[in-house]
Amino acid sequence: MSKGRTPSNEAMRSNQDAAPRVDVVFRNSIPEIPKTTYGTFSIYKYPAKFIPQVIAYTLKNYAKPGSVVFDPFAGYGTVGVVSRVYGHDYELWDLNPIMNLIHDTAVMKAPKINVKELVTRVRDSDYEFIPDWSNLTYWFPEEFLPTISKAWGLVHATKGKMKKMLSIPLLKATRYFSYSDEKVHKLYKSKHSKKKVDRLLGTDWETEFYRMLEKQIEKLLNKMKEHSNLNPQPVKYKLRSGIDSLNTELDRDVDILITSPPYLQAQEYIRSTKLELFWLGHNEEYVRSLSKRELPYNSVDEIHIHSKKYQDCRKEIVEDHLVQLYDRYFHGTINAFATLGERVKEHMCIFVGPAKIRTRSIPIDEILVEHLTEMGWKHLVTYVDPIVSRSMFKSEVNPASGYADSRMATEHLVVLKRV
């Protein structure tokens, strides 16, 4: 891969003036999107998901009519869903193939369906689907599997809008009727989830399963109808899932890159959605291959990082495995931004937080800025946004480290302009 263009003297001179840091509350900045969970911006839980107001604010302030938008770490696909609201073509990449389902469902117009009749079809299904997953019975009691398999059998035998209307509601019901703790993003069996399954087994759980499925289909329909109030526009778009964004080059010019890269110590998004990926039909070998391409497991080229802050923080990390994680994260993400940025004509807008390694806060935004300004980008501004709510659980002590559990208080939107 390319290591980024050599900075010109003019570019280096233009970056000598420090850009401002501006406090902002993005969720209150876009009146046409009244809530972070409005419309189809929240049809499925996805770790570290963009709130739509960040993207809307960026497009309203830095995009031009006709701008093409690109997100190489698209995750849920929120950049694309918001781009439609403002009439921008877009391209989305992500390693996780669940992006396609979430995106395609989120942009779909609500179909006219009889929900009760659809659930009856699921109940009466003669199909069966068993995922290619060696740990299936570890995550599901055997009593539930015939019912869940019958429902997924119908999904895999169905095409078009009805398949999408069933898939996300059924994913929610499937996860709830498993030993997975639905309060935690990663695939995790807890005391809570074991008690949940024991309670279900002592009830008319099959009736509860179909009742939950019906409720989730109705909820999705309402979300779709609500989203139509934003008047999304017909645009051109391209999705590439199952793609290694760290080691892939962009084959066309785009106007603006808007993205939130994987978190420094929470990059295992494939592990978080393993249950979903298996029921969606992906086999164990494929899911394993995706996990190997995630940070911090992916093999990335070492580059020279033009950042004193990067070197200063690195010196304070003692454990070898954390040094490796730190190096792979920055070598991978910075090289990706430098290389992909060569096809970005106007702005790169990168949303990151000052994540911690042990108790040391890592100023990811400042490290990115130091390197990318040396590569010919002008740092316009960093917006500092307080984290108002979290979907992830919090504990007094981090079980992985043994240190007091502390979370990021802010997230930062770095805006860079092509010089």
Structure description:
The chain is of the alpha/beta class. It has 16 helices and 10 strands. It has 2 domains: 9-100 and 235-418, Rossmann fold (3-Layer(aba) Sandwich); 115-227, no CATH class. Helices cover 41% and strands 13% of the residues. The strands form 2 sheets. An 8-stranded mixed β-sheet has the order 1-9-10-6-5-2-3-4, sandwiched between helices. A two-stranded antiparallel sheet has the order 7-8. The two termini are 22 Å apart. Mean pLDDT is 91; it is low at 1-16 and 390-401.
Topology of helices and strands:
Layout: H1 9-14, E1 21-23, H2 52-62, E2 69-71, H3 78-85, E3 90-94, H4 98-106, H5 115-123, H6 136-139, H7 145-157, H8 160-176, H9 191-201, H10 205-228, E4 237-241, E5 254-259, H11 269-272, H12 274-279, H13 284-292, H14 308-315, H15 320-340, E6 344-352, E7 356-357, E8 360-361, H16 364-374, E9 377-386, E10 410-418
Helix pairs in contact: 2-3, 4-8, 5-10, 7-8, 8-10
Features:
single chain, 419 residues, alpha/beta, Rossmann fold, 2 domains, 8-stranded mixed β-sheet, two-stranded antiparallel ribbon, 16 helices, disordered N terminus
